[in-house]
Write a structure and sequence with these properties.
Distance between the termini: 39 Å
InterPro entries: SDHF4 (IPR012875)
Number of helices: 1
Structural class: alpha+beta
Family: Belongs to the SDHAF4 family.
Pfam family, one: DUF1674
Shape: elongated
């Protein structure tokens, strides 16, 4: 990775601001899904399969 001393001052400041925002960010609380599928969300992969029937979005 590039040493931060080699970066322009604006980039160093932006990295510091981003790090501060990440440190102060609240964790995302997602509701528990009841009766959902096991494993990764199939919609992200563009298709859905259940009981041998595949549906392509």
């Amino acid at each position: 990775m590039t040493d931060r001393k080699e970066l322009p001052p604006e980039a160093v400041r932006a990295l510091a601001e981003a790090e501060e925002r990440r440190k102060n960010a609240k964790p995302i609380v997602l509701p528990v899904e009841l009766g959902g599928r096991d494993g990764p969300e199939p919609v992200r992969f563009g298709d859905y399969e259940k009981k041998g029937i595949a549906v392509d979005f």
